[in-house]
TrEMBL record:
InterPro entries (alphabetical): Sel1-like, Sel1_AlgK, TPR-like_helical_dom_sf
Pfam families noted in UniProt: Sel1
Family membership: Belongs to the sel-1 family.
Chain intervals for the UniProt region annotation (Disordered): 1-78
Domain of life: Eukaryota
Record-linked PANTHER family: ERAD-ASSOCIATED E3 UBIQUITIN-PROTEIN LIGASE COMPONENT HRD3, SEL-1-LIKE PROTEIN
Name of this chain's protein: HCP-like protein
Biased composition (Polar residues): 37-71
Listed Low complexity bias regions: 14-36
SUPFAM superfamilies: HCP-like (SSF81901)
Length: 290
């Protein structure tokens, strides 16, 4: 031991004498430059290892599980018809928002269906088998209402709309209001129509505000009030509703609920015409020729 201590080995000053004595008589076999990673005399636990002594990945089993979710992913069966229906749904909602006439909406949908090499009946059958969203229920109700790809059934159409409306789907609520107003698929009930329009207007529906305006103007389901009708039409028009624009222009043209103002009437007819309303063009021609 004394011979070993005479050798010119540099030992850190922080090492205690007790620790130095822990070296065995065979310590001359230990590298004098650095302790071997296999020397566990200084390790408090045999499981504690200094990371990355030999390679950047000292634990070959560290990444046994792949980070990619692909081994656990089960791809859904492709359904090209769903893509077509989803596009039809977007078109339908856009045209409803613009207050396009139902017959014109049918023409637009039929054109898209034909362009995609399918038929209205195939779309109807798909919707019939996939009533799992409120949107699909609503467009299915429209198909039944108009007899698009199927036999017309106003009662089934109304029941589908009412189901969706009771779950707060706004488009369905608006259409339920129309159904009660016209008596299509259900009994005619102006009070119920007014209430449904009011409900959608409270949610910010431009269509609902137009329906309310109509009820106030003609006293349908509520007390007649042309001033409230004007306010509702104006709100609807400013939100982009085409029929709100038309009826607001009419109010200014005829001085209903406000003073007559032909400049404002022309302005709102022009806005309606820009949104695709041919009726507005006819009224514009009358006013500009005077």
């Amino acid at each position: 031991m004394n011979e070993f201590c005479k050798q010119p080995m540099s030992i850190p000053m922080s090492r205690s004498s007790t620790e130095s004595s822990a070296y065995s008589e065979d310590s001359s076999s230990i590298s004098l430059r650095s302790p071997s990673p296999q020397n566990n005399l200084r390790c408090p636990s045999p499981n504690l290892r200094s990371p990355n002594l030999r390679s950047p990945s000292p634990q070959p089993n560290f990444n046994i599980r792949s980070l990619s979710p692909q081994p656990h992913y089960t791809p859904k069966t492709e359904d090209p018809m769903r893509e077509i229906v989803n596009c039809l749904l977007i078109i339908f909602l856009q045209e409803q928002h613009k207050c396009t006439a139902d017959k014109r909406i049918v023409e637009i949908l039929e054109d898209y269906i034909v362009d995609n090499d399918t038929t209205p009946n195939k779309i109807y059958q798909w919707l019939l088998a996939n009533q799992n969203t409120l949107q699909y229920k609503s467009i299915l109700a429209f198909f039944l209402k108009m007899g698009l790809g199927c036999e017309m059934d106003l009662k089934k159409s109304f029941n589908l709309l009412l189901t969706a409306a009771r779950k707060d789907y706004m488009i369905a609520e608006e259409m339920v209001g129309d159904s009660y107003y016209t008596g299509m698929g259900t009994h005619e009930d102006e009070v119920m129509a007014f209430n449904w329009y009011h409900k959608t207007a409270d949610k910010g529906s431009a269509y609902g505000y137009h329906g309310l305006g109509y009820c106030y103007e003609y006293g349908k389901g509520t007390e007649k009030c042309t001033k409230k009708a004007l306010d509702c039409y104006e709100t609807s028009a400013k939100m982009g509703n085409m029929w709100g624009m038309i009826d607001l222009a009419k109010m200014y043209q005829e001085g209903i609920g406000t003073t007559k103002n032909l400049d404002k009437a022309i302005y709102w007819y022009q806005k309606a015409y820009a949104n695709g309303c041919e009726k507005a063009k006819n009224e514009l021609d009358k006013l500009t020729n005077k």
